[in-house]
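#lab-general

N.A. 3:47 PM
ok so I finally got the sequence cleaned up, no stray characters, all 121 residues accounted for. can someone with queue access submit it? mine expired

B.Y. 3:52 PM
send it over

N.A. 3:53 PM
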Amino acid sequence: QVQLVESGGGLVQFGGSLRLSCAASGSMFNIYTMRWYRQAPGKQRELVATIVGGRATTYGDSVKGRFTISRDSAKNTVYLEMTNMKPEDTAIYYCSGDIRVVNGGTIEEYWGQGTQVTVSS
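B.Y. 4:20 PM
back already:
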C-alpha cells in the first residue's frame, strides 16, 4: 500500500558531494521514523542516519559531520546529503520507514529497492 523509491545515486569523485532522495507514495499514510542504510560488498548492512518526527536526527560514527538527513513532509520525501565523500562510502543505499496506513491502524516497516553510490579514489 506504500512504496518507497530511492534516487540520486551514481559515481562521484573523492571529496565530492551527492544527494539521495526517497519518495513515499501510495495509500494515505503517516510517516514516523525514516532511516538510511547502506550495504557495501562483503560487508554487513550499516545504519547511516535516522530522522524522527522530521526533527531529531542521529548518525553513524563513520558519517558524522559529512552526511545530513532531512525530510520534506509536504512532498513525503526524505533526503540524504553526502559531502566530502570517501571510497569507503561506496555501497548500495537503502531507505526504510516506519509508516502507518490511515485505514490500517498499525505501524509497519517499508523498504525501498536501493540506489548504487560509487566513490572513486
